[in-house]
Amino acid sequence: MAGGDPCGDKSRHEGYRKCHDGQSITGMSHIRLTHLKKCEHDPHVLLAVSKLFWSERKIGKCREWFQRTLKIEPDLGDAWAHWYRFEQLHGTKEQQEEVKQRCLAAEPHHGELWCSISKDIKNVGLNTEQTLKAVAKEVPIPV
C-alpha cells in the first residue's frame, strides 16, 4: 500500500472518491474493474459507485451498491443518508422505512455530511432518526 492508501494508488483513488464530495460523477463511467477490486473495502469508493448508478437511474444496481457500502461500514452516516434520500425519490414507503430502521439499528456517527449536521450547535439533541432525515435533505441528487 503506497502512502497508507488502501488501494495502493492514491492519485487514481482520489479521482474515484471525488463523488464522495458531491462533485460530478459523469466522468466515473470509466471505472476499471481492477481498481474497484483493489478498493473493494473502501466504503467511500463503494458509495461513489452507488451514486454513479443513481445518476444513471440504474435503480437495482444502486440499491445493491448501497447495501455493499453499508455492509463494509455501517457507521458511515453519509451512506445511510444517501440511501434514504434515494429511496425517498425512487422507492416505496416500505423501502424507506426499511432503510430508516436499519440505520437506527446501526447508529452511525461518521461521514462528512453526517457530522457537519449532527455536530451543528442548532442540532444538539437530535436522535438518529432526526439526524438521518436532516442529512438526507442535504444530499445532492446525482445527475
UniProtKB/TrEMBL annotation:
GO BP term (any one): spliceosomal tri-snRNP complex assembly
One term under GO cellular component: catalytic step 2 spliceosome
Entry keyword annotation includes rRNA-binding: no
UniProt key word Repeat: yes
Signal peptide as annotated in the record: none
Keyword annotations of the record: Repeat
Protein name (record): Uncharacterized protein
Organism: Aromia moschata
Lineage: Eukaryota, Metazoa, Ecdysozoa, Arthropoda, Hexapoda
